[in-house]
Design brief:
UDP-N-acetylmuramoyl-L-alanine:D-glutamate ligase; 12 helices; 10 strands; globular; binds ligand NPW; binds adenosine-5'-diphosphate; binds magnesium ion; ATP-binding; CARKD; NAD(P)HX epimerase activity; ATP binding; nucleotide-binding
Length: about 280
């Protein structure tokens, strides 16, 4: 298992070129946040915007529109049951983040299936939270896309069938190969399984154990893979590293670190890393 190093992150978060515009830094569609879990959509979307994604559109339950806009005027919104609006957005974006707070009822399942039917093979597809559980419980086929799963240990148990106590590198790798997707297995010392290699995060800690912390990471991963397109694996590792790096910094003066506080620190942390590249 290889360690994710600070050097890798410094070399991934490069200085922005001047001859660019918002379309140069990724366009993503976030699909999540039902009427119970609106906070997940807010955290997903905020993390993506603060992590530098050029254009973010959030497909969510309409009851979340006002609170989302009040917290994050930078995002655009659509009703997540509006198939035509979703289809139009899927023709414009280069990445999708689906599942945080999506819920698991029949409406959530319909939305997930519709996105799977319409996502394009060259798009990044980050699958988190409820979407992972829906795939597991309904045995859904995966679409042709650049798929990145972000399960916590229980979600991974549901998806892979491997009980948490048996989630060894060998067992996890076998399940990852079957899925043929990148797996970010979130836990203390998160592990990332790619087709070639396993990477481990050695930073982060229990100050991060607050609901919404994974929703935040999913938004960051979406923003990084669509923005730092030279190397998708380095982009994912950088998102995972910076997420925990900020939490550790905040953890020096706070007993717990809240997802919305972490999100606010993303831009200044990215600047610091971008100034250190060789
Ligand atoms: N503000 C919002 O809108 C929020 C919305 N959210 C959304 O809610 C949806 C449901 O997601 P979820 O993660 O809350 O529920 P679920 O998948 O049942 O997992 C919990 C079960 O797994 C177990 N467990 C074992 N190991 C674990 C581990 N390493 N990490 C975590 N859990 C672990 C755990 O064990 P226990 O706590 O009982 O010891 C428990 O039995 C999802 O769409 C998500 O995006 C949340 O983000 C919260 C903020
Ligand atoms: N004790 C811990 N040590 C390190 N990281 C942790 C710890 N507890 C939680 N985290 C991190 O917080 C995030 C939690 O993700 P998740 O359970 O999906 O949250 P949520 O669904 O509530 O947003 C993961 O990135 C996980 O690695
Ligand atoms: Mg989660």
């Amino acid at each position: 298992m290889q360690t994710i190093t600070q050097k890798l992150v410094e070399n991934t978060i490069t200085k922005r070129a001047t001859q660019t515009h918002k379309g140069s830094f990724g366009k993503i569609l976030i699909v999540g946040g039902n009427d119970q879990f609106g906070g997940a959509a807010i955290l997903n979307s905020s993390a993506a915007v603060y992590a530098g994604c050029g254009l973010v559109t959030t497909a969510t339950h309409p009851s979340n529109f006002t609170s989302l806009h009040a917290r994050l005027p930078e995002t655009m919104v659509i009703d997540f049951t509006d198939d035509q609006a979703i289809k139009t957005m899927l023709n414009k974006v280069n990445g999708v983040v689906i599942g945080s707070g999506l819920g698991e009822d029949s409406s959530s399942l319909k939305i997930l299936k519709f996105v799977f039917q319409n996502v394009q093979s060259d798009q990044y597809l980050v699958i988190d939270g409820s979407a992972i559980d829906l795939i597991a419980s309904h045995n859904l086929d995966l679409p042709d896309a650049h798929i990145i799963f972000t399960p916590h240990e229980m979600e991974w148990q549901r998806l892979s069938g491997i009980p948490i106590k048996e989630q060894t590198e060998t067992n996890n790798r076998a399940a990852q190969q079957k899925l043929n997707a990148i797996v970010v297995l979130k836990k203390h010392h998160t592990e990332i399984y790619t087709n070639q290699e396993t990477y481990q995060l050695l930073i982060g800690g229990p100050e991060m154990a607050t609901g919404g912390m994974g929703d935040t990471l999913a938004g960051m991963v979406g923003a990084f893979v669509t923005q730092f397109t030279d190397n998708e694996i380095n982009a994912i590792m950088s998102a995972v590293y910076i997420h925990s790096f900020i939490a550790d910094q905040l953890g020096k003066t706070q007993y717990v670190t809240l997802p919305h506080q972490l999100i606010k620190k993303i831009p200044q942390t990215m600047l610091k890393f971008s100034q250190k590249a060789e």
